[in-house]
Amino acid sequence: MLKFASLASLLLPAAHSVSGACSNPSVRKAWTALNDDEKHDFLKPEVCLMETSSKTRYAGSVSHWDELQALHTAQVHYWDEQADQAAAPLYASSIFNAEMGFGSNKTDANGCIVDGPFANVTNTLLSNFTRGPPQCLTRALDQAQFNLVAQAKVGLCDASTTYEDFNACLGGDPHVAGHYAVGGIMLDLALSPFDTIFFLHHTNLDRLWWVWQSRDLGARLTDMGGVNVASFSVLTQAQPKSLPAGAFVPYFGDGGGNVTTLNHNLWMADILPNVTIAEVMDIHSDVICAEYL
Ligand SMILES: *[C@@H]1O[C@H](CO)[C@@H](O)[C@H](O)[C@H]1NC(C)=O
Ligand SMILES: *[C@@H]1O[C@H](CO)[C@@H](O)[C@H](O)[C@H]1NC(C)=O
Ligand SMILES: *[C@@H]1O[C@H](CO)[C@@H](O)[C@H](O)[C@H]1NC(C)=O
Ligand SMILES: *[C@@H]1O[C@H](CO)[C@@H](O)[C@H](O)[C@H]1NC(C)=O
Ligand SMILES: *[C@@H]1O[C@H](CO)[C@@H](O)[C@H](O)[C@H]1NC(C)=O
User: What is the best residue among 227, 254, 258 to mutate for testing ligand 4's pocket, by most ligand atoms within 8 Å of CB?
Assistant: First the structure.
């Protein structure tokens, strides 16, 4: 299994104001701020999507557009790991509620979660993007790792004055420790998105980026940088075929170099139109149009 080292390059894009047409932003809330109906509305399409995609995704001709649309129109929310870390033990975080969350800390001898809406979902995708036997959703909560996502750690990153430094910092402890705190498949470089918590974790990182941007929007809505290629070992291990990092550079729109620019093309796998980083730098852009609560 591939484990997370320092993967700043995997941070999802958060948010470049273009036309100001975003008058009715979707509201991204902390998991703890949702009522039971909102939690249910979030979890239901997730399970649906998983059950469908586990059978056909990558393997056949069935389009998952409907499911993805359902997901897309549902709210995107985040795990306020900093608040939860300060408030209570990891296992007591409401995200690990068996009824109205992603399952409790209980696992069987194989590390499979045994309760909550994802107890019986199975993944057949392997790290090399071929198919294998069905695997359950595994977790192994780790309090010591969770302590590394603390606000004090994020505060160190907030002191960064460039995006490149901020991203490198946030991609360290606040990012990596979130994966290790959940454990199980969240430690797998290629397969961690199988655990839906992955998306709440990464939306939280997007939120923290927005908090940092908001301190100096004049400069930070256009501040981009850092290498645009994952480290070589990551590519060789996680891709079906090993390709040198430079093989990807021509497709990125960064002028052929390996530095990430605002013109960088974000490939959406034909699920949504590709966008440039410039189009998603501002959470109030047409493409994102969201607000964090
Ligand atoms: C799992 O959660 C229960 C409370 O639901 C707690 O008593 C127990 O210590 C937790 N176990 C671990 C390993 O965190
Ligand atoms: C998972 O499957 C088992 C066996 O079919 C069943 O007993 C259990 O209720 C299921 N759990 C959930 C959360 O659906
Ligand atoms: C993918 O990984 C599986 C499990 O490690 C292995 O059995 C299989 O041969 C690999 N397939 C390819 C094409 O590398
Ligand atoms: C980026 O490109 C420069 C110049 O070609 C090269 O020296 C450097 O090793 C590259 N860095 C990465 C991380 O690929
Ligand atoms: C999206 O980006 C990928 C990668 O650069 C490219 O292959 C694809 O043709 C693009 N799709 C569209 C519709 O432009």
Answer: 258
